[in-house]
Write the structure tokens for this entry.
Amino acid sequence: QEQLVESGGGLVHPGGSLRLSCAGSSSIFRLTTLAWYRQAPGKQRELVAGISKDGNTLYADSVKGRFTISRDNAKNTLDLQMDSLKPEDTAVYYCYAPGNIWGQGTQVTVAS
């Protein structure tokens, strides 16, 4: 069974930064598009950012200019650099691969 494993979550003050990482198998990273989603308490899971195998990216409007998604196909890793964090970014963040492959999630909390 394919797996994705996230790391890097935690507690940060507003305006701070965190970097999330996701590791998986080479069979997953051969897939075209990978993505980060998040789910805040009481809300639906939403797309944060996606990246194609060639490096083309897309972002939710709420994170444009603050978050950067990247991937290393040689190392089989997917990262999300999050800067200028806001309290509304608080959520569990999941990495995703086509075929309904999800990581276990990592908590990000932005609070004073």
The longest helix spans residues 26-29.
